[in-house]
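[stage:ingest] chain + small molecule (3-phosphoglyceric acid)
[stage:ingest] validated
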Amino acid sequence: MKVLIATEKPFSAKAVQGIKGILEDAGHEVLELEKYTSAEELRKAAADVNALIVRSDIVDKELIAAAPGLKIVVRAGAGYDNIDLAAATAAGIVVENTPGQNANAVAELVIGMAIMAARNKFSGSTGFEISRKRLGLQAFGQVSRHVASIAKGFGMEIMAIDPFCSPEVFEEHGVAAADSLQKLYSENDIVSIHIPATPQTVGSIGRELISLMPKGAVLINTARKEVVNEAELEQVLEERPDLKYFADVKPSNAATLEEKFADRVFFTPKKSGAQTAEANLNAGLAAARQIVAFFATGDTTFRVNK
Ligand code: 3PG
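[stage:predict] done
[stage:export] C-alpha cells:
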C-alpha cells in the first residue's frame, strides 16, 4: 500500500525515519510531503495513496474526493477537529488518532507557561511561585492527567472537571472534582483548558467564566483557540488588568491583544505543545503501527469516526 506522511509542521527526522522503517518493513511504500504551502499540493500528493499520516493538517472533503484510493487517515496526535469525519465516513475511510502519545509534551508546556506567566514573562518584576497555588483543569483526559501529575510535584492543589469521568477517576489521580465550570474558574489561580473543539465547545469560554477568576489568575490554553470567545476574552482583559492569557494557539485577535496587553498575554508563534523529539517519535511510530495493523488484520482500535 502507498502511505503518505503529510505534515505542514514536520516531525523530527528521527521520527520520519522510524515511521518509514515500520511501514517499509511491513511492505508498504512511503511518500513524504513536508512544509507544503497549499491544499492543492496536498491533494496532488494524496491522489493515489491508500493511507495518510497527518498532524493538524486539514483533511477536508475536497482532499477526500481527490484521494479515491484512501482507506485510512491517522492523525498522529490527539485532536481530530482538522478532519472532516462525516466526509471520511461517507467515503468509507477509517479515521484514527494516537491518544496519549504526545500528552506529556503538551503537559510540560502547560507547566512552562504557568511559570512564565507567574514570573511575568521573565521581565524581572516580582512574580509568584506556582507551588501551593490552585490549579483547575477543564477536561481530564491524557494531557490533563500528565499536568496533574507534574503539578503535584510543585505542591499545587488540583481540581478538575470532566463530564466523561467518573468520581473514581479523579480520586485515583488525587484530584478534586469540580461540580461546575463556575466553581473551576472562580476557585483556581491557574486554569488550564483541555477540551476539544466541537460544535458544543466552540466559543464556550467567554466573559461569564473568565471574569469569575480570582485576582491575578492565569488562563492557559494549549487546546484549540476556537473554544475561547475571543471578543469576550479581549473585553475581560480590558476590564480586569490583573488577568493573564497564555496560549499555544494564537487567537485570531492576537495582534490586538499583544498590543493592548503586552505584559499579560503570550502566544507561541507556531503550535508547540507536541513539538518535541519524544512526542514526534511516540505519535509518529504509533500512527505507523496502527496503519500496519489496519492493513494486516483490519484492526481499528483507535477509530474515531464510528
Ligand atoms: C494534538 O491534538 O495532538 C495537539 O494539538 C498537537 O498537534 P500537532 O501535531 O499539530 O502539533
